[in-house]
Design a protein that fits this description.
Number of domains: 1
Helix content: 25-40%
Structural class: alpha+beta
Order of helices and strands: EEEEHHE
Strand order of the largest sheet: 1-4-3-2-5
CATH topology: Bacterial Protein-export protein SecB
Length: 152
């Protein structure tokens, strides 16, 4: 009998690893009429947790400020997933995690952020689609460890 060498990619589990909401200037911030500036930061990280099993965590941090120093809200969501990746070349594992898995996790992280912002009493923040392939390539060129991007 020959061993099955077909590539395997399955989603084992999707979950929120961490979720935090801060509204440091409540309740006065709800009386503000000025629209806040929204800053979005993304960080993507992955690691092997078992033979052929990997955890990928996409962390989205959304900060809303009025002026330079008045924080309206800060939301951070770490959306994670456990993925089975087998029978692929070792050099392909990282791109699969940082691009493919991140694309799977992003809609869940987007929903978690929007829901958290709404529950905090603000208009939902709808995150624009992200090109994780470009993010990964930029990271490779810079020679950094975890993929990170800032969106204004």
């Amino acid at each position: 009998m020959t061993e099955n060498t077909q590539p395997v990619f399955t989603i084992e589990k999707l979950y929120i690893r961490d979720l935090s909401v801060e509204v440091p200037n409540a309740p006065k911030v709800f009386l503000e009429r000025e629209n806040p500036q929204i800053n979005v930061q993304l960080r993507n990280d992955g690691k092997q947790i078992d033979d052929g099993v990997y955890e990928v965590v996409l962390t989205v941090t959304v900060t809303a400020k009025i002026g330079e120093d008045k924080t309206v809200f800060l939301v951070e969501a770490a959306q994670a997933g456990i993925f089975q990746i087998r029978n692929v070349p070792e050099t392909d594992i990282e791109p699969i995690m940082m691009i493919g898995c991140a694309n799977i996790l992003f809609p869940y992280a987007r929903e978690a952020v929007s829901d958290a912002v709404t529950r905090a009493g603000f208009q939902p923040v709808l995150l624009a689609p992200v090109n994780f392939e470009a993010m990964y390539q930029a990271r490779q060129q810079a020679g950094e460890g975890a993929a990170e991007a800032t969106v204004q």
